[in-house]
Structures are given as C-alpha cells and as structure tokens.
Design brief:
This is Transcriptional regulatory protein ZraR. The protein has 462 residues and is α/β, with parallel strands linked by helices. The chain has 21 helices and 16 strands. It binds adenosine-5'-triphosphate.
Length: 462
C-alpha cells in the first residue's frame, strides 16, 4: 500500500540553502500531494519544525549557519519519530553513514533524482506510520508480557512485541539487531509465525558458519557437475524457503561475492542454480539478523551499502539484558519452570538473595547466559528453593557483579563484606567473626542466609 493513501497530506520540510533547488522540488512534491515547507538555514529549519511539525525532513548537509548533522540531532531530540532524509554531496558516504548513526532514516545523493527521492520518501513515511501506530498501541494501555515464546515486561520489550505484531503481517524485509543471546532467532520465529507465510517453512542460515566457497551453492543450489564435487542436483536454501521465510543470521559475515549475488536476487527477484541456465522466481520473505553494527562494516567496506538498504526496511532492535533488568524476574521464572519440568525437580522458587544476585549480574551472554545459569541451578538444587550455593561458582565469588549498577542493597554490602573477610582469613570463621565484630553464631546465620555455607558445614554448625 502506498503510505500516501493513508496519510494524504504528508508534510515535508525541505532544508536547503539554494532557493533554485527548492523551486522545482517543491513543485514536483506538491504535484504528488505532499505539503511542502521550505527553510534555507538551520535555525529557520528548527523554527519551522516547531510550527509545522513535518512528517519527514529533507535536510541538506551543508547549511550556512550550522552543519546538517547538528540540525539532525536537534530534530531527533525534539521528536524521535520524525524521519530525516539527508541530502548529501556525491561520494560523501562516510557522512551519510554518520548521519544514519545519528538517527537519519536514509540519504539521497545530490543532484537529486526525483524517482529516487520519491521512493525514499515513501519508505520514510511508511516507517513513520508504523512507529506512530506502535506508539498508539502503547498509549492504549495494551500491556503485553510476552509474544510467542518470548517473555518480557520492560518497556523496550513491550515496544518490540508491538512492533513485531505490526510488521509481521506485511511482507517487508526485517533486520533484527542484538548482541549474542538476546533472542534474535525467537524474534524471527515470532515474525514468521504471525505472517501469512506461517504455514510455509522458515529456513535459517547462519552466514558465519558456511565456508565462503560453499556459500553460493548452499544459498542458490547447483546443477550436477557445476563444479568438482557437485555429484547431484541440489536445491538451494532460497528455493527451500519458497512460500516461507528466509532467515539470514549473522548477515554481517556473508562473504563479499555472496553479498553481490544476494543483492541481485533481491533486485531481480530471480534465482539460478549454479551451472544452470533456467531461472525461477522464489517467493520468500527475508529476515536478516546481526550482532555487529553493519554501519561499521560498511565504513570498512566489508558490507555492501546497497545490500544494507535492501534488507533494512524495518529494523527491530533487541536491547542487551543489562539494559532491561526488569525482564530478569520473568525470564528466571520461565526458565525455572522449564528446567524443573525437564529434569523432574521439585524446585519452585528462588531465595530472594538469588534474585537480587541475578538482577545485578552483567549478563554479557544475555538471555542465553541467564538460561544456562538457571538450568545449572535447577539441576543441582535438591529442595523446593534455589539458593545462592546452587549458582555456578562465578556467581558465588561475586566476580561478575556489575559494580556500577545502582541496584545494591544493604544485604549485598553485608554479603560482600563476609565473602571478603572469609577470603582474608582463608575460611577461618572464628577470625572472620572477630574482624566483622559479630558472634560466631551470628556469622553462621548470615552465611546460611546468603548461601555461603557448604552443606556439610550446615550440618556441623546447626
Ligand atoms: N525474551 C525471551 N523470552 C524467553 N526466552 C528467551 C528470550 N530471549 C531469548 N530467549 C532464550 O535465550 C536463548 C537465546 O536466544 P536466541 O537463540 O534467539 O538468541 P540470538 O540472539 O539468536 O543468539 P545468537 O546471536 O547467539 O545466535 C534461547 O534459548 C531463547 O529461547
């Protein structure tokens, strides 16, 4: 659907210091039913932005009073939903990349080719509509604590669930970004399962795991005899994804030659097996996932810019777990139930000190790391409760606590003091109690409370 069908009078603010450029562009845009306002420097652009509230800003990077990047920052601060399309000089790719890092939607090289600009504007408006709709859903008090096999109660995850719900039914290409273990594959599954292709296959490829020389034959298939070792005809993974979804995981690791070929498939919508002359038209929805910043790879010429713009119609960002600690309790509960069932354990809850500990961990391995920690604890727990001593060693030593976290209780401080003192006295509890200024039974009680007592010691000191 053309976004202008739903937003008939989309407002454009065009910021450029050359009036002659404005004239023809303004006329051309108005002919396409856009409402156009013009500004010739940064300050008047910001003033006009406040009065007219445009949907999209076309922003020249060179302005008489300030740089386009500065204006971009001000605009994004004033309204994070506004879409900014930068107009850049020929060959200034690094500037464009910088602008996109600062939140620009896209860029168009000058001299502007109207058809190109129009296509970019359409995409920008579609993007804005989608985000506005997601914001509306949030405002309507619809609270989601999960989607598909994902759980999460943090604002960031709720936003993500809303966005997935909106994007899934469309056929738009999706780029999922997130560190390892944040749940990119689950997000891809959720998109597929909520799309009209749900009854079709979802084919997943880890681009980092296929050796460079095999990539093309894996992706496109080959005819028998196409190369040494091609003993039989082979269907490519793209062919297998017909009527379904193709997930290209770790897309940043795709070899350069395969990037060119993939781009061609996306442009021409046709595929040919290696060594074959016949073309066929695959029908698949593309989802890509990455844990690296593609912008950085592009700046290093390791990822093709034209491919980037093909795959990033909708971007779904999954924040690292340490930036959404509110999700830790629900995730921990989910994994506790999952593994208690799997290993037939009676365990049903966490001791509060365990949850506190989990809340403070740095979680460099994100949700996957949390899942493994809980699995470990469930396996070694014998009663109904997970205690600190059931956590892996790294947790008990406290070495992976995020010391910069503001989440610190008096109990944390007390526990840390006991651990430190016992280390100093090499486990001698009498000496530790003396240093800490408490009676030995008090120290024992606290060690028990914080799960610092080995089971045999518990019996001896009870
Ligand atoms: N929000 C969530 N709710 C429930 N489980 C989750 C959630 N996020 C991640 N997981 C679980 O964490 C593990 C890692 O998730 P997943 O494999 O989707 O991550 P990933 O980002 O694709 O990782 P990688 O980049 O390493 O491939 C999986 O077992 C998944 O089930």
């Amino acid at each position: 659907m053309n976004p202008r069908d739903t937003m008939p009078a989309a407002r454009i603010l065009h910021v450029d210091d050359q009036p002659e450029t404005h004239e023809w562009l303004k006329l051309a845009l108005e002919r396409k039913q856009y409402e156009v306002t013009v500004a010739t420097d940064g300050q008047s652009a910001l003033n006009s932005f406040t009065t007219h509230r445009p949907d999209v800003v076309l922003l020249d990077h060179e302005l008489p009073d300030q740089s386009g990047l500065e204006v971009l920052r001000h605009l994004k601060n004033a309204d994070p939903l506004v879409e900014v399309v930068m107009l850049t000089g020929h060959g200034s790719v690094s500037l464009a990349v910088e602008a996109m890092r600062e939140g620009a939607f896209n860029f168009v090289e000058k001299p502007v080719e109207f058809a190109v600009l129009e296509a970019v504007l359409d995409k920008a408006l579609a993007h804005r509509n989608l985000h506005a709709e997601a914001a509306r859903l949030r405002m309507s008090h619809e609270r989601r604590d999960g989607l598909g096999r994902m759980v999460g109660t943090s604002p960031a995850m709720r936003r993500l669930f809303d966005l997935i719900t909106l994007v899934a039914p469309t056929d738009a290409s999706v780029l999922i970004r997130g560190e390892n273990g944040t749940g990119k594959e689950l997000v891809a599954d959720a998109v597929h399962e909520r799309s009209p292709r749900a009854n079709g296959p979802i084919i997943k490829i880890n681009c980092g795991a296929i050796p460079g020389e095999l990539f093309e034959s894996e992706l496109f298939g080959h005819k028998r005899g196409a190369f040494t070792g091609a003993l039989a005809d082979k269907r490519g993974l793209i062919e297998s994804a017909d009527r379904g979804t193709l997930l290209l995981d770790e897309i940043g690791e795709m070899p350069a030659n395969a990037q060119v070929k993939l781009l061609r498939v996306l442009q021409e919508k046709q595929v040919r097996r290696l060594g074959e002359t016949r073309m066929f038209t695959p029908d698949f929805r593309l989802i890509c996932a990455t844990n690296s910043r593609l912008e950085t790879l592009m700046a290093d010429n390791r990822f093709r810019e034209d491919l980037f713009f093909r795959i990033n119609t909708v971007v779904l960002d999954i924040p690292p777990l340490r930036e959404r600690r509110e999700d830790i309790p629900v995730l921990s509960q989910l994994f506790l139930q999952r593994y208690a069932e799997k290993y037939e354990r009676e365990v049903v809850r966490y001791h509060p000190s365990v949850l506190q500990r989990l809340m403070k961990h740095v979680w460099r391995g994100n949700v996957r790391e949390l899942e493994h920690v809980v699995e470990h604890a469930v396996i070694v727990a014998t009663g109904r409760e997970i205690q600190l001593r059931h956590l892996p060693d790294t947790f008990r030593s406290g070495s992976t606590v995020d010391d910069t976290s503001p989440l610190c209780t008096l109990e944390d401080v007390e526990r840390a003091a006991i651990v430190r003192t016992l280390a100093y006295t090499r486990g001698n509890k009498r000496a530790a109690a003396d240093i800490l200024g408490v009676y030995r039974p008090t120290l024992y009680a606290k060690m028990r409370k914080y799960g610092l007592m080995a089971p045999q010691e518990e019996v001896a000191t009870a």
